[in-house]
């Protein structure tokens, strides 16, 4: 019997100290050994990674795979295929499915529904609002990876889709934070100011504004900063652990930087669309460029890069949020009629590698930004986010030297017609995605059987 199930030979790995080359030897879904010149007779299967980068399997801590309930937009199979083709081995799926994941029984049902389809490991969020305070403990015990609360209400017609996941006042947020604190899990917060956005939206409606830029004008920078400020102040008072999702502005980055200097238990993410596009994209692509918070200004992009390079923002997620083309088209004449969100789970790594190649991010920070940062924050490190003996054998093998152009029609998402990154020149082609020691995706060959992705339980910590 060979000692290993798989050897990834000549793996070039990066960490904070530089590059290392070795063979990664895998058995029973775990990394067993990292060494040089392993004898081939020791294994039943070899992948040669010569000339490629091997990264800890990517984690995307923010996706909306829409399953169950909204599977015409995406389902767990199409979503996790996209993840796998993009080198992502673990996703954290948001609770805004239908029904919204507001209690333990819905949570357990969702695990059953999605695990059959999963081509990536998956953690699932519980929704948290003033309406389900008594369910929060049960969600934690069911294995929620973290909780999610929107500080901004959805448009009225989409309220059922979000019921149980949003608050509309600081008092409500305060109570939800207190309930989540008892679970020891991270509280993820979508920080935009509900009342100010409602006021600005009313003003724009009365002026008859429906053009794409009205979306930006309804949610200017200070509406993110206001909410980020409230969330930080409350979380420091309550001493709870928060994670601010999709940070988009210089103002919010500065608030996060000073809170972290004070020692606040706070982390944050941004997304490729905030790093690639400024608000002009709304004029160019109309409703397809509508997402919340909106695209910002060139100075915000600069500030986000700086925050990533200073570890003020700890990770890059995608907020993969697909919608059908017809739904986006509703915003052609009136931007307020289009749903917000854009797909991105498959295209994150080559965009980040392009930025690293251009010197805007450091190549040695790529593992931290794409897996290690999330694994550490959400309590699953070094099981995930690490290439070391004992860690799960989740690996992303990418040819960093290959430049290519994103073609939306080649992507796995059901919402490929809405992809904003179509036509973008990027760097780094994913050749293999290794999931729990098995090849989940191989370029030019295809995908493993659905269902090999495993449920990742949240681990409360204090
Ligand atoms: Zn989201």
How does this structure look, described?
With 462 residues, the protein is of the alpha/beta class. Helices cover 31% and strands 22% of the residues. It has 15 helices and 17 strands. The strands form two sheets. Strands 1, 2, 3, 4, 5, 14, 15, 16 and 17 form a nine-stranded mixed sheet that branches. The chain has an eight-stranded parallel sheet with strand order 6-7-8-9-10-11-12-13. A hairpin with a 3-residue loop joins strand 16 and strand 17 (446-447). Helix 8 runs parallel beside helix 9. It binds zinc ion (ZN). Residues 62, 64, 94, 319, 321 line the site of zinc ion.
Features of the shown structure:
462 residues, alpha/beta, Urease, subunit C, domain 1, TIM Barrel, 2 domains, globular, binds zinc ion
Give a short synopsis of this structure.
This protein is α/β, with parallel strands linked by helices. Helix content is 31%, strand content 22%. It is globular and about 75 Å long.
CATH class of the largest domain: Alpha Beta
Q: Kindly name the structural category.
A: alpha/beta
Mean pLDDT: 96
Q: Characterize the quaternary organization of these chains.
A: single chain
Number of strands: 17
Radius of gyration: 21 Å
Domain unit count? 2
- CATH superfamily membership of the largest domain, which one? Metal-dependent hydrolases
Count, helices: 15
The CATH topology of the largest domain is TIM Barrel
**How far is it from the N-terminal to the C-terminal residue, by CA?**
43 Å
Q: Compounds present?
A: zinc ion
What is the molecular shape? globular
User: Which architecture of the largest domain per CATH?
Assistant: Alpha-Beta Barrel
- Strand-residue fraction? 15-25%
Main β-sheet description: 9 strands, mixed
Please mark out the parts with pLDDT under 50 across 5 or more consecutive residues, or reply none: none
Helical residue percent band? 25-40%
